[in-house]
Specification:
Radius of gyration: 56 Å
Number of helices: 8
Shape: rod-shaped
Number of strands: 4
Distance between the termini: 194 Å
Helix content: 40-55%
Strand order of the largest sheet: 1-2
């Protein structure tokens, strides 16, 4: 049985039409691509410069505080500990130096007679801090001669230069004995004796002491202190400056003086009572 398809075509009529193409005929599947239209060229902007390479931050030995927004850690605990330690170590040293400095200024700035007496006290305190023994019951003259025999510059005299320095130091340590208010003697005496004589004049002479006497007395003390400082090592100067011997000696001397005054008043009171009983 065979069947076919007829289709009426205009102007032709009915005609056989086979819609299935032969097997040996392949349909055309290629699609014509539209012609590409070139786009207008646009000038591209220049490329941005490269960013500089950031180096990593330097490594810090100290740990940063995570709560600190700036990342900086200040060791307040260590600073406080060191400060307190230094204060505990240097506090007593500073107190001793301050006490001696105030004592020296108070003596020097006093009235003329008191300033002259203070110059002698300063000389005695310097000798005591240096390790010399001063007996409180001796007079100024006795103490001055004792100091002059003990407190001498310890310069080397092995050669001519050392001997010349020693002779010059001994010459500086002597002063003219012509102290106003004091009997005139010929020759010279040690400078310490001159300071003692000025203090005795300030205490016992009718005219007392003048401002120029106080100035000269302190100049003598300063010269003696310079000679003493030049005769010892720096370590010895520091040790003597921090010595508490003179402070303790002054405290003990004040207690003895107070006890002597009280004993004198008590003796005078008893003598007055006895005299009253005898008169009665």
């Amino acid at each position: 049985m065979h069947a076919w398809v007829e289709v009426e075509f205009p102007g032709v009529g009915w005609a056989t039409f086979d819609p299935t193409p032969p097997r040996d005929q392949q349909p055309t599947t290629q699609v014509n691509k539209p012609k590409s239209v070139p786009k207008p060229q646009v000038l591209q902007p220049p490329e941005p410069p490269e960013q500089p390479v950031e180096l990593p931050p330097a490594t810090r030995d100290q740990a940063t505080d995570p709560h600190d927004p700036n990342g900086v850690h200040i060791p307040w605990m260590a600073i406080g500990t060191v400060s307190v330690s230094l204060l505990l170590l240097l506090g007593p040293v500073l107190l001793v130096l301050l006490a001696k400095s105030r004592r020296r200024k108070s003596r020097r700035r006093a009235q003329a007679a008191e300033s002259v007496r203070g110059s002698w006290d300063e000389l005695v305190d310097t000798a005591i801090d240096s390790g010399l023994v001063v007996e409180p019951h001796l007079t100024r003259q006795e103490v001055a001669w004792a100091l002059a025999s003990q407190w001498t510059p310890k310069k080397s005299e092995d050669d001519e230069e050392g001997a010349a320095r020693a002779r010059k130091a001994r010459k500086r340590s002597a002063a003219d004995t012509r102290v106003p208010g004091w009997s005139l003697f010929s020759g010279t005496v040690p400078r310490a004796v001159t300071v003692a004589r000025r203090a005795d004049v300030a205490d016992f002479a009718a005219g007392g002491a003048r401002p120029e006497d106080a100035e000269q007395a302190w100049n003598d003390v300063d010269e003696l202190r310079r000679e003493w400082a030049a005769s010892v090592s720096p370590f010895a100067r520091l040790r003597y400056a921090l010595s508490l011997k003179s402070l303790r000696w002054r405290r003990r001397a004040r207690r003895q003086a107070d006890a002597a005054r009280k004993g004198g008043r008590s003796m005078a009171t008893r003598m007055g009572r006895r005299k009253g009983n005898v008169d009665g």
